[in-house]
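Try this one yourself first.
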């Protein structure tokens, strides 16, 4: 289905039918608003049609769509500044780490807006894994399948990304 030509309207309608429920759920996990989530998914597909994205650009449509919709939902949340009302515990896997303060204590010093901003500054591998784990709530095995990586690579990138994210947050807090 994915060659070198741009996606045409018929193919886009098929993709919409196939992927709508998954993408809607992805957006709703971030926004917690059904109507807004539906709008985000529809806007994403309209953008694909308008932009004339080449099918060869999309190697894994499901992962590409889910990541794009997650980002659109996060961007919308940033625009309307509703993110401060959402407790961090609902968005992040706040597990404790051996030999260090608990993640609950580490995350509680930061606002969700700062966390999202700092995630954008991570290297692509770390950023994608963290976004998929934290916002799409995917398990490491699911992320590995989406990104064509081994589960151990995903776990490693998640842990390194989380460590780097905390460093960025601390730097932002100390300089801002």
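Now uncover the answer:
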């Amino acid at each position: 289905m994915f060659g070198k030509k741009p996606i045409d309207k018929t193919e886009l309608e098929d993709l919409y039918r196939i992927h709508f429920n998954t993408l809607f759920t992805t957006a709703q996990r971030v926004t917690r608003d059904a109507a807004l989530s539906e709008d985000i998914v529809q806007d994403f597909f309209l953008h694909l049609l308008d932009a004339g994205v080449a099918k060869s650009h999309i190697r894994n449509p499901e992962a590409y769509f889910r990541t794009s919709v997650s980002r659109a939902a996060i961007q919308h949340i940033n625009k309307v500044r509703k993110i401060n009302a959402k407790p961090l515990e609902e968005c992040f896997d706040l597990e404790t780490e051996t030999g260090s303060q608990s993640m609950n204590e580490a995350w509680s010093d930061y606002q969700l807006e700062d966390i999202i901003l700092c995630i954008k500054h991570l290297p692509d591998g770390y950023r994608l894994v963290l976004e998929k784990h934290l916002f799409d709530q995917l398990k490491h095995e699911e992320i590995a399948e989406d990104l064509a990586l081994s589960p151990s690579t995903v776990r490693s990138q998640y842990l390194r990304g989380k460590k780097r994210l905390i460093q960025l947050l601390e730097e932002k807090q100390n300089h801002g």
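Discussion: The chain has two domains: 1-80, 87-176. DSSP finds nine helices and no strands in the chain.
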